[in-house]
């Protein structure tokens, strides 16, 4: 293991005991943080959010510059890993403070739709972002669609897809048994109700288990059961891959606005579990239609039911082998090296 001489102040959020903190952005940030520690990098982690109640991050953002200035002394590099609400609020100010302190900056956009938000911004705000965030030494973005958009605007950005470690568990050889699984935040925009409607039209042999933190603004466990869904609870990050190996196909009929490269899709690929997901944002960059999974239109229970029925004992093995092969380009042991290299 090569010891880095760099001293990093890393900004972002990690999963906490508050279920609202558990999501793709925090899980990815945790994996990057752990990777840097494994590589011997001296990392001081500064959480940008303490409170996870709606709008509470505004108070956290107000305090963040003061915390930043207390922690920046002795650091050589600032590494920011953030989603859209951070980019458009406190991020420009944190960038300015970093530059005033003569620190190099790595800025990582987590999520897959910031280019769409940027396009809608007034020119004045675009100018502010160009002079701050987009002046960072290294800028990483999650999807190729975002890379193409910003490169065409002469903004230099690099690809850093969501990634996962190769599975250390033995992948079981299994025959297709019509067992489907959903693992994500249990909220309407992730397609939970689409799954419920599709399931009503399928024979009883088809089963779908639901895992993930429940968005209590919309659902309770009782409500999910009344919808005909088998809710199995939340999963800690280390249990996701072992759980996936017990199923045939993963479902993610999402139309979530900020969807990038969902980590759970990459985890499914890592153990040869094909995916049915929507052709939404950049998901087609993750799932190759009719190869390692199926792409369907958004908000279409009929399309989801048809896709579920298209898997058979004859074609399942090929889908599973292709899924395992597709994982290679999302191997975090390779992808996260780019972050390490940005610190030099």
Automatic annotation (TrEMBL):
One of its GO terms (molecular function) is transferase activity. Coiled coil: none annotated. The keyword Cell division does not apply. The keyword NAD does not apply. Keywords: Transferase. It comes from the Bacteria. It holds the Pfam family Glyco_trans_1_4. This is Glycosyltransferase involved in cell wall biosynthesis. It comes from Mesonia hippocampi.
């Amino acid at each position: 293991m090569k010891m880095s001489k760099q001293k990093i102040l890393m900004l972002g959020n990690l999963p906490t005991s508050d279920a609202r903190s558990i999501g793709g952005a925090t899980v990815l940030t945790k994996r990057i943080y752990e990777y840097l520690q494994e590589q011997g990098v001296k990392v001081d982690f500064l959480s940008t959010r303490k409170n996870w109640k709606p709008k509470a991050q505004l108070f956290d953002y107000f305090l963040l510059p003061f915390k930043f200035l207390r922690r920046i002394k002795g650091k050589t590099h600032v590494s920011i890993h953030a989603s859209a609400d951070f980019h458009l609020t406190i991020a420009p100010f944190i960038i300015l403070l970093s530059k005033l302190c003569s620190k190099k900056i790595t800025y990582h956009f987590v999520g897959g739709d910031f280019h769409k938000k940027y396009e809608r911004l007034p020119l004045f705000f675009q100018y502010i972002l160009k002079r701050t965030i987009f002046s960072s030494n290294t800028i990483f973005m999650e999807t190729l669609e975002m890379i193409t958009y910003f490169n065409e605007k002469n903004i230099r950005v690099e690809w850093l897809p969501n990634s996962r470690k190769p599975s250390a568990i033995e992948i079981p050889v299994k025959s297709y048994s019509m067992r489907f699984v959903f693992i994500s935040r249990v909220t309407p925009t992730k397609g939970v109700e689409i799954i419920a409607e599709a399931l009503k039209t399928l024979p009883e042999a088809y089963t779908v288990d639901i895992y993930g933190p429940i968005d209590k603004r919309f659902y309770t466990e009782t409500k999910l059961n009344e919808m005909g869904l088998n809710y199995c609870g939340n999963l800690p990050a280390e249990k996701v891959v072992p759980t996936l190996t017990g199923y045939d196909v993963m479902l993610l009929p999402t139309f979530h606005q900020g969807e990038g490269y969902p980590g759970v899709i990459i985890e499914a690929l890592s153990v040869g579990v094909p995916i049915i997901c929507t052709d939404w944002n950049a998901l087609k960059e993750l799932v190759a239609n009719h190869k390692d999974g199926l792409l369907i239109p958004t908000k279409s229970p009929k399309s989801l039911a048809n896709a579920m029925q298209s898997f058979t004992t004859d074609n399942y093995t090929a889908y599973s082998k292709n899924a395992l092969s597709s994982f290679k380009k999302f191997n975090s042991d390779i992808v996260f090296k780019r972050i390490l290299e940005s610190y030099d």
